[in-house]
Amino acid sequence: MAEALVLCDVTENIAVVTLNRPQALNALSDGVLAALKEVLGGIAVDAQIKVVVIRGAGKVFCAGHDLKEMQAGRAAEDKGAAYFADLFSRCGEIMQMIPQMPQVVIAQVHGIATAAGCQLVASCDMAVAAADTKFGVNGVNIGLFCSTPMVALTRNLPRKQAFEMLTTGEFIDAARARNLGLINRIASEDLERETLDLAQTVAGKLGAALRIGKRAFYEQIDMPLAQAYAHTGAVMVENMLLRDTDEGIAAFIEKRRPDWA
C-alpha cells in the first residue's frame, strides 16, 4: 500500500502535517492538494487542536506545483486551459483555508520553498526556517510568472522587494527572508525542536482567545483605521465575556495559575 501523500500526527493539542512526496520534492500535485485540503479541513473542526505545524518530508519543504502534471494537462483539446484554471483555483482555496482556520498555523521550512511552496509559507500565520533554507518565486525563469504565489507574497513582504523576487526569479536566504518578514525565526540548531517550542508556547494559551484573536487579526488587517478599532473593540468585548478570560485575569491579579476549563 502506498504511503499517504500528506501525513498528520496529533500530540495533545498540536497537529504536525507533513507533505510526504519527498521523491518529487513535495511538489503540490493534484493528489497532494486533495490530501492537504482533506487533512486541513479535518483539523479545522477539531476543537482540541490549537496549533498546526506544516512541514515537508525529505530534503526540502516544497518545490511548488508539479510541472510534469501541468505539462500533461496540455494534452486536452483546450490545451489545458480548464485544467490550469481548476488547478490554480484548488491551490488558492487551500492557501485561503490556512488563515481561515481557527488554529494557529506554523510553517517548518527547510531546504527550499519555491513558487507555490513559497506561497504556502507566506500563507501560514508564522514560519520557522533552517538557516540554510532558500526561498524563491522563480517561475519567471521558465516563462511562468508566479501570479498566484504573488498574492500571499505581497501580503508578507514590502512591495518593491516582492516585485524584485517575482521578476528576477532570484532566491533569498533565511536571513533575508526574516528581515523582509516572510519568516519569524531562524532555527539556530534543531529546526524541529525549535518549531515545536514555538508551537507549544502558543498552544499553552487559552484556545478560545487564540481562535477569537486569529479571526480578528485577519478581519481587521485591511479595514480602514476607524472601522478596525470599532471591529476589534467588539471582539475584545466578546473575549472579555468568556468565563476563562474572567478566570485568567483573576488568576493574574491573585498571582496563581488560571483554572481554565
From TrEMBL:
CDD domains, A to Z: crotonase-like
Swiss-Prot/TrEMBL keywords: Fatty acid metabolism, Lipid metabolism, Transit peptide
Domain of life: Bacteria
GO molecular function terms attached to this record: hydro-lyase activity
Any GO BP annotation: fatty acid metabolic process
Pfam families to which the protein is assigned, alphabetical: ECH_1 (PF00378)
InterPro entries associated with the record: ClpP/crotonase-like_dom_sf, Enoyl-CoA_hydra/iso, Enoyl-CoA_hydra_C, Mitochondrial_ECH-domain
Role according to the record: May play a role in fatty acid biosynthesis and insulin sensitivity.
PANTHER family the record matches: ENOYL-COA HYDRATASE DOMAIN-CONTAINING PROTEIN 3, MITOCHONDRIAL, PTHR43602
Classification via NCBIfam families: PRK08139.1
Protein name: Enoyl-CoA hydratase domain-containing protein 3, mitochondrial
Species assigned in the record: Pararhodobacter oceanensis
